[in-house]
């Protein structure tokens, strides 16, 4: 499949966008008019740069309000179009996007619109060009792909075809199955965009909330399936209007964009493979087979204060397994929970820097990650050390892949690998990760595509510094669970705490042991327990135990959830959870209590600690 992307998707100058698209691996780009107008490069320089970087220039866009107008205005529109065709010759572009009329329409007659497109096609042919007619979802007269195609068919001109845009089709709830009835030679371009399912006017939805495939709620594999079955084999381009993307790092966004198309091809190929009657001209790339993760192997904390973090782990009952034989790295374990403290020379502060996942075949997972443009983590190991390949997730988080094992081989690299540490903590239940506002969608797509996790419905939680959006991603068997949070913009992308949640079958015993060892828990206000007594039919003695130990409580139809939080060190804290009778949530109703308590605790610290400790 030939991949393309509209320059409007990305931040930066036109030159920066072209370099980013080429570096990411796109085949071509669409030139958005505004990007060219404000660029100091001449059209010839743009063309030359694209050729040097191996990019085709697939489309010039947009040309607005051509059709459905009176003769005098149409004559003016033809003059505008001719100027654009001359410009396209300089750029080396042969196709121009023509949007259905929104602002100047006065004629509602298919025959008239077809005649106007036919005359524009005649003009385009003189310049070796063609036009792709697109039905905007908010078009004044033509606003569905079927209507646009009827007019293209009436025009009956070799230089007049259609452009199919998934957003304009799916946002209206139109059935894309009709795409298979369109002559594929008359589809001049396909543009893709995903989007969250929102109840708002379609114009605002389109201009601000489009997403890359896999990041929203549209069935894009199904959409692509209709295209493939219909015989289309031309370029598939991304056209994403998104305020966040246009403020984000251009290289990271371009990489994420191509990853979404690679993921989509694989999903579409799987869909087509299940349809024995389907025949396809388009070649779809597929991803290497790789089994999902079997579990969390370890969590890694970068810290310049290992004594304080180690004290927390000791109070929770973890055993110190010693230093790595040649690195400033400590290992702490309890049950199947493994925490690595890395105090390397470039470490400053305390933060959750990465985690390991166990896979049946780590090499296959690496091949899949590489195919999805994940960037490898450089990691030196000696001949007697376990290879631990890894990739960088968005914004630098490192994810490592290891073989599934109850006792990972890499543990032998620490001074005391034989320490017996059976205790009250069973395993790492989940990781709670913070992402800045401009990396959230990228992070979710990375987890879904590279790590093969499944997204659950997002939730929003109020905090003293803004609304926190949380997205849970997990394997189908819930062996791996990640909660990804958007950092409120008031924190500027830093200072928001992350945590490791540890699972036990006896949280009261863990809490009492930790408190006896001197641990101070995150304080929970008395008001919470008064409210808890009103919400749930708990015995007074149960409420008293919860209050005394600063435990939080939730329940659903399946069971109950008890948990507590440690103090925050830098940007890291720990949570201990007990799941009873099949409870599968994360205590979401208590998140606001935790955020408020952390804010209040941080507010009372000296200013330097408050800056380092976050919220």
Walkthrough of the structure:
It is elongated, with a radius of gyration of 28 Å. By secondary structure, the chain is α/β, with parallel strands linked by helices. α1 (14-24) crosses α10 (250-273), α4 (71-91) runs parallel beside α5 and α10 (250-273) runs parallel beside α13 (440-449). It is built from 18 helices and 25 strands. Strands 17, 18, 19, 20, 21, 22, 23, 24 and 25 form a nine-stranded mixed β-sheet that branches. An eight-stranded parallel beta barrel has the order 1-2-3-4-5-6-7-8, surrounded by six helices. The model is unreliable at 607-615 (pLDDT under 50). The longest helix has 24 residues, at 250-273.
Features:
disordered C terminus, 615 residues, 24% strand, single chain, 18 helices, alpha/beta, nine-stranded mixed sheet
Q: Beta fraction of the residues? A: 15-25%
Number of strands: 25
Main pleated-sheet profile? 9 strands, mixed
Count of helices?
Answer: 18
**Structural class by SSE content:** alpha/beta
Radius of gyration: 28 Å
Show unreliable segments. 607-615
**Portion of residues in helices?**
25-40%
- Gross morphology is elongated
Distance between the termini: 46 Å
**Arithmetic mean of pLDDT:** 92
């Amino acid at each position: 499949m030939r991949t393309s992307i509209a320059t409007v998707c990305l931040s930066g100058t036109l030159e920066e966008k072209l370099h980013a698209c080429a570096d990411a691996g796109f085949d071509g780009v669409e030139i958005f008019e505004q990007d060219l107008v404000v660029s100091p490069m001449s059209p010839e320089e743009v063309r030359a740069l694209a050729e040097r970087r191996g990019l085709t220039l697939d489309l010039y866009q947009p040309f607005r309000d051509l059709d459905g107008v009176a003769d005098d205005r149409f004559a003016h529109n033809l003059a505008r179009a001719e100027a654009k065709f001359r410009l396209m010759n300089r750029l080396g572009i042969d196709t121009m996007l023509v949007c259905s009329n929104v602002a100047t329409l006065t004629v509602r007659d298919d025959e008239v619109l077809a005649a106007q497109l036919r005359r524009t096609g005649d003009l385009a042919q003189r310049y070796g060009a063609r036009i792709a007619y697109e039905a905007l979802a908010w078009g004044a007269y033509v606003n569905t792909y079927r209507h646009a195609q009827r007019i293209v068919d009436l025009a009956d001109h070799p230089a007049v075809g259609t452009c199919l845009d998934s957003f304009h089709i799916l946002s209206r709830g139109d059935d894309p199955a009709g795409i298979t009835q369109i002559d594929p030679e008359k589809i001049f371009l396909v543009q893709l965009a995903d989007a969250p399912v929102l109840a708002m006017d379609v114009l605002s939805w389109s201009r601000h909330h489009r997403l890359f495939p896999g990041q929203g709620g549209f069935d894009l594999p199904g959409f692509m399936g209709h295209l493939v079955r219909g015989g289309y084999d031309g370029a598939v381009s991304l056209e994403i209007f998104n305020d966040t993307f246009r403020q984000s790092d251009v290289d990271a966004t371009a990489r994420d964009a191509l990853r979404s198309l690679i993921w989509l091809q694989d999903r579409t190929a799987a869909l087509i493979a299940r349809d024995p009657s389907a025949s396809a001209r388009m070649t779809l790339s597929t991803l290497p087979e790789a089994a999902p993760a079997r579990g969390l192997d370890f969590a890694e904390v970068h810290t310049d204060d290992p004594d304080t973090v180690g004290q927390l782990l000791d109070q929770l009952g973890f055993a110190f397994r010693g230093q790595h034989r040649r690195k400033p790295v400590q290992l702490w374990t309890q049950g199947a929970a493994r925490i690595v403290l890395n105090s390397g020379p470039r470490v400053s502060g305390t933060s959750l820097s990465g985690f390991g996942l166990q896979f049946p075949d780590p090499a296959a997972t690496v091949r899949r990650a590489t195919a999805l443009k994940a960037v490898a983590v450089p990691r030196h190991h000696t001949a007697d050390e376990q290879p631990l390949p890894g990739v960088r997730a968005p914004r630098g988080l490192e994810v490592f892949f290891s073989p599934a094992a109850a006792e990972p081989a890499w543990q032998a690299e620490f001074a005391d690998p034989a320490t017996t540490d059976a205790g009250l903590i069973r395993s790492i239940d989940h990781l709670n990760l913070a992402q800045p506002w401009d990396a959230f969608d990228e992070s979710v797509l990375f987890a879904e595509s590279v790590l093969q996790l499944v997204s659950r419905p997002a939730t929003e939680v109020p905090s003293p510094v803004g609304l926190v959006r949380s997205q849970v991603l997990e394997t189908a068997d819930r062996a791996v669970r990640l909660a990804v949070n958007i950092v409120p913009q008031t924190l500027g992308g830093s200072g928001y705490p992350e945590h490791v949640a540890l699972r036990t079958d006896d949280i009261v015993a863990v809490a009492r042991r930790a408190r006896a060892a001197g641990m101070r828990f995150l304080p929970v206000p008395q008001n919470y327990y008064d409210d808890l007594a009103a919400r749930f039919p708990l015995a007074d003695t149960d409420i008293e135990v919860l209050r005394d130990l600063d435990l939080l409580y939730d329940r659903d139809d399946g069971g109950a959830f008890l948990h507590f939080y440690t103090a925050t060190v830098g940007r890291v804290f720990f949570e201990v959870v007990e799941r009873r009778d099949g409870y599968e949530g994360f205590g979401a109703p208590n998140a606001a209590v935790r955020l408020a308590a952390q804010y209040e605790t941080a507010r009372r610290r000296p200013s330097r600690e408050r800056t380092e400790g976050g919220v």
